[in-house]
Design a protein that fits this description.
Length: 196
């Protein structure tokens, strides 16, 4: 795991999102800037970490980062502009929250829209290659999981506290049995009414 993609333009911000494949709730993105000499051997792609470890590392990231931001796009926005555009918009909103303006941005994946005039680089599997992207993946994942588990109290039939809104068999069967709720993404095929 590398600390930075490049060192000429500091500060460098890493961005990632969580929840693109979910059937309900927002897509959440985060942006993180670390100090120039920073390294943490425990930070990794959030998908490779246990839930307990993610929350421990979230506290470390928040404490150690120069600055960080977490933002989202709602399920209604996702339905209006599509999940790719919503993911990028959420990343832009997270970058807006940084108290220091980055001079370079690295983004997990292969799609991004320019953020002002700041140069950027997309990195496929960047959350397994660069610390700031991995840290952003942890923040986005933990904040989104908290949000969906809280929403699960209002809509218990979907068992979001367990499936986190992803299209598990249990979640899809609950939609067939009980219908959708206001937090579902209606542009996603499993949420659309079935005609028999």
């Amino acid at each position: 795991m590398e600390s930075f993609y490049q060192t000429e333009k500091y500060p460098e911000a890493g961005c990632d999102e969580a929840g693109r494949g979910c059937l309900a709730g927002p897509v959440v993105a985060a942006a993180v800037i670390f100090p120039p000499d920073y390294f943490n051997k425990n930070i990794n792609d959030s998908k490779q970490l246990s839930e307990k470890k993610r929350f421990i590392l979230r506290d470390e990231i928040i404490k150690d980062a120069v600055c960080w931001g977490v933002a989202s796009c709602s399920n209604e926005e996702i339905d209006q502009i599509n999940i790719l555009q919503a993911s990028i918009t959420a990343m832009h909103r997270a970058l807006d929250m940084l108290s220091e303006r980055p001079k370079f941005i690295i983004v997990d994946g292969n799609k991004f829209r320019p953020y002002g005039d700041i140069p950027y680089q997309t990195v496929v599997k960047g959350d397994a290659k660069f610390l700031s992207i991995a840290a952003a993946s942890i923040l986005a994942k933990t904040y989104r999981d908290e949000w969906i588990c809280n929403a699960a109290k209002d809509y218990p039939v979907y068992n979001w506290q367990k499936n986190k809104g992803y299209p598990t068999k249990e979640h899809r069967l609950a939609i067939l049995e009980h219908g959708v709720c206001p937090l579902h993404r209606m542009s996603y095929e499993p949420c659309q009414p079935k005609l028999f």
